[in-house]
Design brief:
Blueprint (H helix, E strand, L loop, with lengths): L1 E4 L1 H15 L3 H19 L5 E6 L3 H15 L3 E6 L8 H12 L15 E5 L11 H12 L3 E5 L21 E5 L2 E2 H4 L3 H5 L1 E5 L5 H7 L3 E3 L22 E5 L6 H13 L4 E7 L3 H7 L4 E5 L2 H14 L2 E4 L7 H13 L4 E4 L1 H9 L3 H8 L5 E4 L2 H8 L3 H6 L1 H9 L4 E4 L5 E3 L5 E3 L12 H14 L4 H23 L9 H13 L1
Parallel strand pairs: 1-7, 2-3, 2-4, 4-5, 5-6, 6-8, 9-18, 10-11, 10-13, 11-12, 13-14, 14-15, 15-16
Antiparallel strand pairs: 1-9, 16-17, 17-18
């Protein structure tokens, strides 16, 4: 597990390390410079011409220290200070004095030369206002220059807490960030400006991180140890009974994807509640599943109660449509079911309509088994009555707002957020753009249901479900490519992910 810091959290960690623990700021700055130098020595030929652009704060000081080390290694380094900020920080002034003693001169005007590498050390993690004036002009010109672009800590103009662009942003190929990654480097559009993000340890004590306790985490492959344990003395009932209400007419694929994923993620039994027209294809594609099909609304309502009482986990939504009947299915589940519930896709669209009723608001809030909601941005927009653009500006905040209603929320986007409104929230870093294809959300529903059935908590099932879903996509894209990946591939590659986790 890795902590991910906001602007304020990283500033507080830095402050605690310096003021409470007593590590001099200049020591942290030197270690940051050494960490960056290591990357340059590994990736940049020593005959390269490098331009380092700074301001008078600590981010600029990091840039000056880096430039000094690179000069000593034989690189050709030019320094340009924007110089709009009136006063130097203490550490920046120390670095400038050292360069002065080495007879290093700063460029007096913005250079017209070409460089192999351009280093942005203008603003760091602390920026929270729009970039304007001279700073904006300089960043604009830097973006137009050829050469490898490297950002120190955070690309100038990227909001470290939200990933929003503050007027203009430096477009980095590589961002070298210190201590912890920053939320704004991972959320879009900031992630698009950050390029490859390299996190370097520079000596922030663990006590400082623990004291500040950042409110966001991500998982690494070591976290696969959290998966439900398989026991030698067990049977199919040990691993839960998943009921999937999925697949209206002509939408059998959604039911197949979710059911396969539920089995592949460890469910002992999976039962599909679907329309009669889907029977043959479901039997052919997933013969392991128990089928309960209906040929009319009346039949469905007669059969559903027994299915709900049978299940230890319920998933509803993939491919059920948004008809009056679909809303009736969701209403019935909320009124009568007691098992943990995952609502996805059309189930969420139906829910957003039902929540206009006071009775359904109460049922939703007080649902006994607990819920996991898995909306994408448009579905979240309907649930919160909030424009997609507003949600996109701060995904963790939007997810928290919905989770505050009492359930786990999986807000699906390029970077999916998982939260139950407690701290920390989870940001997912697995997955790839090959997964941007119909049906992958249905697979995720099945995975989460399977992990719930295996005994994980709602929050852990959602976090690990999202993480493993992305890892399966990463495995698939290695063989299928980004253009060739289909939703139906993911359950097969989930095998590889879970097999590696248990070796």
């Amino acid at each position: 597990m890795n902590y991910i810091a906001s602007r304020e959290e990283m500033q507080n960690i830095d402050c605690f390390s310096i003021e409470k623990i007593g590590i001099p700021g200049i020591v942290l700055m030197e270690k940051a410079a050494l960490a960056m130098e290591e990357i340059f020595l590994d990736r940049v030929p020593t005959d390269s011409r490098i331009l380092i652009v700074t301001e008078k704060g600590n981010n600029g000081g990091d840039g000056l220290a880096l430039g000094r080390l690179l000069l000593e290694e034989g690189y050709q380094v030019d320094f340009y200070e924007v110089g709009v900020i009136p006063h130097d920080s203490e550490s920046h002034q120390i670095q400038k004095n050292i360069l002065s003693q080495m007879d290093v001169e700063f460029l007096m005007k913005f250079p017209e030369n070409d460089y192999d590498v351009i280093v942005d050390a203008i603003f760091g993690v602390g920026l929270k206002r729009d970039v304007a004036g001279r700073h904006k002009d300089v960043i604009e010109r830097l973006n137009q220059m050829p050469g490898l672009k490297v950002a120190v800590d955070v690309p100038s103009g990227v909001d470290a807490s939200t990933g929003q662009i503050l007027g203009i942003g430096f477009r980095a190929d590589i961002t070298i960030t210190f201590g912890l990654s920053k939320i704004g480097l991972l959320l879009y559009p900031g992630a698009d400006y950050s390029g490859e993000v390299i996190v370097k340890e520079i000596g922030f004590p663990g006590k400082a991180v623990e004291e500040i306790a950042p409110k966001m985490i991500s998982y690494t492959k070591e976290d696969l140890s959290r998966l439900p344990e398989r026991k030698a003395w067990s049977h199919k009932g040990t691993y839960g009974k998943v009921l999937l209400i999925a697949g209206e007419k002509d939408m059998a694929g959604a039911a197949i994807f979710s059911a396969k994923a539920a089995y592949k993620s460890g469910s002992g039994l999976v039962r599909l509640f679907s329309c009669e027209e889907n029977r043959v294809i479901l039997q052919n594609q997933i013969p392991e599943a128990i089928l309960t099909t209906y040929d009319s609304e009346e039949t469905a309502m007669e059969l559903l109660p027994e299915c709900l009482s049978w299940a230890s986990v319920i998933g509803i939504g993939p491919g059920i449509g948004r008809s009056v009947f679909a809303k009736k299915l969701v209403r019935t589940v909320l009124k009568t079911a007691k098992a943990p519930l995952v609502i996805d896709a059309d189930g969420l669209n139906c829910l957003s309509e039902l929540l206009k009723e006071e009775e359904m608001q109460i049922l939703f809030k007080e649902y006994e088994g607990g819920m996991i909601l898995t909306p994408h941005l448009k579905e979240m927009s309907r649930l919160l009555s909030m424009p997609v653009d507003e949600i996109r500006k701060n995904l963790p905040e939007a997810a928290g707002k919905m989770a505050d209603k009492g359930h786990v929320v999986v807000l699906k986007d390029v970077r999916t957020i998982v939260t139950d409104a407690s701290i920390p929230a989870y940001i997912n870093l697995s997955g790839n753009n090959g997964m941007a294809v119909g049906g992958t959300g249905d697979v995720l529903t099945g995975i989460i249901c399977g992990f719930l059935a295996g005994g994980l908590s709602h929050l852990e099932a959602a976090r690990l479900g999202v993480y493993c879903h992305g890892l399966a996509g990463d495995e698939a894209v290695k063989e299928k490519g980004e253009y060739g990946l289909l939703a139906g591939d993911l359950p097969e590659y989930l095998d590889k992910v879970l097999r590696k986790a248990t070796l």
